């Protein structure tokens, strides 16, 4: 089976909901389902988070990040962190755990490198999207953070399946974009029960159409993607010239500019990125 046929085969499986997740993802999916329940009480969320030491550490860390700790008062317990963050941010943290778990069992060095770079890219996009949403687009920042974290989840799923199809991730990235990214991405997003507005924003990234200044979540993700200093390894590299051009994107925002806002928010972006890279 050649690369294109392999992408089409996996895409067809994803379209039918026939997704094969690594065993370590199952518990995280159950946790996400519990947090998605509108009747999920804070005490329940605390117990669920405490049951996973890594997630507990990340929860406290993001609660103490510059973006969420405006008062400068650090906390050390999961309960206090949950109260500060709220369930929606916890959903983002669980999503980040699921995404990283998809690439955690890779043994091939090339696939490991791709997964590591893809997560670096994802963490930058998520951190930038949160700040751009809050300071520029007037979009819900928690939703933007969540969308940034999962915007490449289809790619992580493909990397997790790549060992079954030797060489599938070698060669022209356009094969992945043309024959796998959309259908596989949609299938994984459905499995994760991602809300329609977030799915639609991620689909807008696949078409590449946006408005400046950003007017909605899709525009916010695309701008964050352009500004991210690390490329996705599953797409054609932007290259120094394209990235330099992206970094010069500027426009008026109220009495300021995008460049000024990003400069003022650099510590927030750096702090969020650091937590996501834990």
Automatic annotation (TrEMBL):
InterPro entries, per the entry: HDOD (IPR013976), RNase_Y/CdgJ (IPR052340)
Recorded superkingdom: Bacteria
Organism expressing this protein natively: Pseudoduganella namucuonensis
Pfam families per the UniProt record, alphabetical: HDOD
SUPFAM superfamilies attached to this UniProt entry: HD-domain/PDEase-like
Full protein name: HD-like signal output (HDOD) domain, no enzymatic activity
PROSITE patterns from the UniProt entry: HDOD
Domain HDOD: 21-208
